[in-house]
Amino acid sequence: MQPFRAEVEQRFRDLRDRIVAGLEALEPAGAKFNRRAWQRPGGGGGEMSELRGELFEKGGCNFSAVSGERYPFVPEGEGAPAAEELQGKPFFAAGVSLVMHPHNPFVPVVHMNVRYLAVGSDVEWFGGGMDLTPFKPFAEDTAHFHGVLQKVCGPERYARFSRWAKEYFFIKHRNSERGVGGIFFDYLRGKEDGAFAFAVGDSFLPAYAPIVEKRRGLRFSEADRAAQLRWRGRYVEFNLLYDRGTIFGLKSGGNPDAIFMSLPPLVSW
Amino acid sequence: MQPFRAEVEQRFRDLRDRIVAGLEALEPAGAKFNRRAWQRPGGGGGEMSELRGELFEKGGCNFSAVSGERYPFVPEGEGAPAAEELQGKPFFAAGVSLVMHPHNPFVPVVHMNVRYLAVGSDVEWFGGGMDLTPFKPFAEDTAHFHGVLQKVCGPERYARFSRWAKEYFFIKHRNSERGVGGIFFDYLRGKEDGAFAFAVGDSFLPAYAPIVEKRRGLRFSEADRAAQLRWRGRYVEFNLLYDRGTIFGLKSGGNPDAIFMSLPPLVSW
Q1: pLDDT at residue A252 above 80?
Q2: ipTM
């Protein structure tokens, strides 16, 4: 492995450790993420960390670093390298991915991912994103979340990447956004883009934890809970039908248990 | 509409009526399917019928007959017409589709579909299938189900179509069949294939109802129920990631509520 890959891998591990510690600190009765390493038959592997807590009914924060002989994905979207640059070439992919499903319907679901990809010997990029999916949106929470993202992105990137999130986190068959948006970016190939991706990762806790603290005490009814379970169906639909990370993971022979950690603990249709 | 299309449409409606009546007769406390018509903005529509009963926690038996200006699907699999014969041409699609999710974990989930497609002025075919997905398979139930299918297919078709089902109802990312199989067929363009497709539709009740009667009284524990909810996740994964009907429906602007009637009522991951 090239030295840069080893360094990137270590930085993702460290990011994961900081986030896991920050989320565990929110759990009232000391629930901890349960870590499990997995190996990918084709090369590499990862460490999944799953939380089944009191505040978080289910959450996952996964680190992975996989490599393979043939990049299995057709690139799509703004800034994507040409198909010929990628198809059939050896690849390396590393990143951190998290989704948290709180028990209380008034605490929003959140997703964050940052990733590094290298394909062949010339093409490499960073990608990622973060979005908030409240069952019942509070304008003040949306403003806080986007405010943190605005700060980490700066105005130009925020304008581009929040528009990209609006398009990406969109449930086409329901003609509806998944939640209240956030940022999404991919194929960032500039010199400073690694630093930016890691800064996004480190903005997750300040963007999310204050919202959790503000909403965790709200009381909810059985009807709210039933509506939350139905509403979670949309999250499953998005992840299995449209989400690039899920589809990349499954097509590249990733571990289904790690990939489906993003799915809610209990869902109704 | 051509006279043949109107006739096919009526035959599918009648098939739906017979099946709905047969399934309602199994419900112990008189639960009935709830029918709702829907219109497709691009042309046609359907009638969904949903059951929320005591025996069947959730079930759907949908009739649809939709048409559109451009066939939205890339044909794939054994016997598929060439892409040029289909792409961008006007189409008509009609059929009946059902999925039943029993409450008792020992009563198997079942799926059945028969459909007719016409694309452009020259290409038309029948397709369909039926498969059984028991949480805990009983060899005797599997033998009964396949026995009925063997009879309606005859030996040559049964050999081909049950092999096709093994390939089709396969959850690739879990490297596992969805259940204990059944039959799957598509692109049947012979003169007698319409009669065959409707015979398959009418074999559904004799294939399934005796299994329901045999297993409905079995007692189950809370642990069985929890395991059933986790196991149902595989069904969702299959339908959203691989199922042609679901993907065709969503891509052709079908009604998501009708399409997702196939999804289990309560699922855990």
Answers
A1: no
A2: 0.88
